[in-house]
Amino acid sequence: MRLHNTTQSNGAPINHKHVLPMVQVNTFYLQKDSELKVRLRSLIDKEKVILSRQGRPGTSSSINSLKEAYRQFEQDLSKLQASILLPSTLGGKIRYE
Prior knowledge:
By secondary structure, the chain is mainly α. Helices cover 61% and strands 0% of the residues.
């Protein structure tokens, strides 16, 4: 990555020591976003299959397992949302958890 003199839209110079951490944060979020989309699509597909089998033996345990999987998904999404602290200015610390 080649850094050169650049300015923000307001004319203020960009502090390049923050560019790489921001790129890393963006990459991390894009990766996690992709992973969560795949998990959610899988959960939705499983839900459709389970609902199409309602009334058959084992359906209630499948529904309970699916509910637990949705709870885990929600917890993981909440952790991701809370895992990176980005202050309103780039002068602050970036924290990875």
